[in-house]
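Figure 2 data, in text form.
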Amino acid sequence: MTIATLRTVLIPYTDHLESDFLMLNVCAKNRKHMNGPHTLAKARTIFQSILSDPDIYAMAVLDIRTRDYLGHIFVDRHASSEGELGYIFDKQYWNKGIATEVLRAFIPDVVATLGLTKLTANVDTDHEPSIRLLKKLGFEQIGHAKDEHGPYLIFQSTFGAVADENSEHESLSSTAFLDSNHRLGLKTQIHK
């Protein structure tokens, strides 16, 4: 399945995207807020798990016109109806609204495809652009934690459940964000 937005196309990973994925994930600047860069061997191991692990739903993000590799998005399913969202974009595509565009198309698709009711996302406490993005997408901060890489915030969004009336944000599952087919009301096309 592919998903097309105004500027991007999201496609499932194949072997031919390995070098793009490796370059993205060994770059210190790209991974500054993601526990630092991976070694080439570690990035290669992660790529192989993307291809083979049925609990990882991942897509490559390409420029819709040039097919240049822009980034990587995924959900790692932890339980039958819960998953953790992750995303990384090459530094040259930051602050252009691409992550917002891509995630607004990807999240409803992955929620429907995997039958998820909850998504979480962890973000470094000082990664303001990602914090703003998650809030814009309807995620709410539910906690904070610390690991060997430092402190981080925990965000969550629920789907198919009654929203908390005290919520400051509308989630992507609210009627304001979904069309009659329970997909985002953006100009996106999903091809199976």
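Caption note: Confidence is low (pLDDT under 50) at residues 162-171, 173-192.
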